Amino acid sequence: MASLTIKNIPEPLLARLREQAAAENRSMNREIIRLLDMSLSADRSLRLEFRRTLADVQADAWSRLGGNWMSDVPVEEEIADIYSARSGGREIAF
Question: 21 with 27: CB under 8 angstroms?
Fold first, then answer.
C-alpha cells in the first residue's frame, strides 16, 4: 500500500481528529482513511447539493450586507482605493 504525508495540519483540526479517532477507538491513520473514504464515496449529487447550500448561505450574507455601506467618500474614490490596495498577486511559472 502507498504512504502519504500530510503537512501543515492546523492544530484545531488535528485536535478534533485525535478526539474523533479516540472516540471511535481507531488509530489516527485508520480514522483518516475512513474519513477520506467516506468523503470520496459520498454521492456526487450530495456533494454538489452541499456546495450549492454553502453558496446560498454566502450569497444571503452578501445580500444582507448590501446597502449598509456608509462612507463620506464618493463611490468612485472608494473603488479606486480598493483597486490601489490590491496586491499584484504572485508570479506563476508554467
Answer: yes
**pTM surpassing 0.85?**
no
Alpha-helix runs per DSSP H in 1-94: 11-23, 28-41, 44-65, 75-85
pLDDT digits over 9-42, tens only? 999 999 999 999 999 999 999 999 988 888 787 6
- The label of the residue with cell 448561505 reads 57
Residue appearing with cell numbers 472516540: 23
Number of residues in the chain: 94
What end-to-end distance do the CA atoms of the chain give, in Å?
Answer: 32
Residue 62 in grid coordinates: 452578501
* Cβ neighbours for 32, distance < 8 A, ≥ 6 positions apart: 6, 17
